[in-house]
Amino acid sequence: MKDYDGTEYENVESLDDFAAVPDAFQRLWTPHRIAYIQAGQKPGTDVCPFCIAPTLSDEQALIVARGTHAYVLLNLFPYNSGHLLVVPYRHVSTYDHADDAEVAEIASLTQIAMRVLTATSGAHGFNIGMNQGEVAGAGIADHLHQHVVPRWSQDANFFPIIAGTKALPRLLGDVRAEVAAAWPV
């Protein structure tokens, strides 16, 4: 079998060799994403970036807002410009272990993040979610965090898969400064 660039692979089965019922879905295989899964925080690791971040300056840690029980920072490896993470200060691994105050503040900070990103970047929509546990794709499985990813009707979300490149038109420091300045006090 030959790859898109002409590379020949041995012992690779063609999809034509499998029994299947055609459906309306197209499959977009992204084997390069396994690096994120395999390189995630290992259980029992003492170094947690979400525990270290609040001890640094907001600029160093890319923090845009600090609450009582949780804080908001830019994702160091964003899917889109303005990709935020809402993180409890307490080192807790899953949502069901967060206490009522943490859950309430995570929800409140997520709402504010959406409003601020809409105001600063004109986001048309959002992907919001938590990957709970390593098997669910959490890059840092030991510390709960919620993703707030702004989306636009014209964003290039297939560019990373096709070209192996992310188009991020703004520097992280610039986005952090803008979002932090627009965050209500």
Automatic annotation (TrEMBL):
Gene3D superfamilies listed in its UniProt record: HIT-like
InterPro entries, per the entry: AP-4-A_phosphorylase, FHIT, HIT-like, HIT-like_sf
UniProt keyword list: Nucleotide-binding, Nucleotidyltransferase, Transferase
PROSITE patterns: HIT_2
UniProt keyword annotation of Transferase present: yes
Top-level enzyme category: transferase
Motif Histidine triad motif: positions: 143-147
SUPFAM superfamilies in the cross-refs: HIT-like
CDD domains: FHIT
Pfam families: HIT (PF01230)
Domain of life: Bacteria
Enzyme Commission code(s) on record: 2.7.7.53
Protein name: ATP adenylyltransferase
GO MF assignments: ATP:ADP adenylyltransferase activity
UniProt organism field: Conyzicola nivalis
HIT domain sequence ranges: 49-158
